[in-house]
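I am still getting used to backbone structure tokens and would like to learn alongside you. Label the sequence line and the structure token line clearly, so we can match residues to local backbone shapes. Go ahead whenever you are ready, and we will take it from there:
>
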Amino acid sequence: MTETFIHETSVVDTGAQIGSGSKIWHFCHVMGTVEMGNNCILGQNVFVGNNVKLGNNVKVQNNVSVYEGVVCEDDVFLGPSMVFTNVVNPRSFIERKNEYKKTLVKKGATIGANATILCGLTLGKYCFIGAGAVVTKDVKAFALMKGVPAKQQGWVSRSGAVLSDDLVCPETGERYKLEGGILELVTEKLR
């Protein structure tokens, strides 16, 4: 097993479960009920709130707060300064901690720098949220989302390459099929 690294300026509260090989860099705070898988990386100035679950190989870039209610499956990438929310209608003078909405980020999804994800949504496996996008609705697997509010602009492969009409990944040769608005992987890597 690979050792876990926690920088001396970071705080990991008692009870947090940190997987083997994970690295927690400068000025992070991980709350006590966090479950973090193996080989995760938390960049500088990351906050991970209570009851958050991060799967294996999750990469959280600098200046990200992963608030209570968020679950990230394996191989998720959270870009620099992207934002999660966890309450639909926050007010400073009304406590709504019992109203946190669950946000599920499925396996292999990427969220670009400065994107915002409203709470209560599901981001499909291997979807790609462009930098600065504001996601207000559930996202399909393999969907490429851009804009404010985010709209689907195409499809991406597991490797993150934009797919053309033939639905073949230009990087790996993987083939996909589109049926009823759902994209699925048909063949594994050919190259």
User: Anything to note?
Assistant: The CA atoms of residues 86 and 92 lie 14 Å apart.
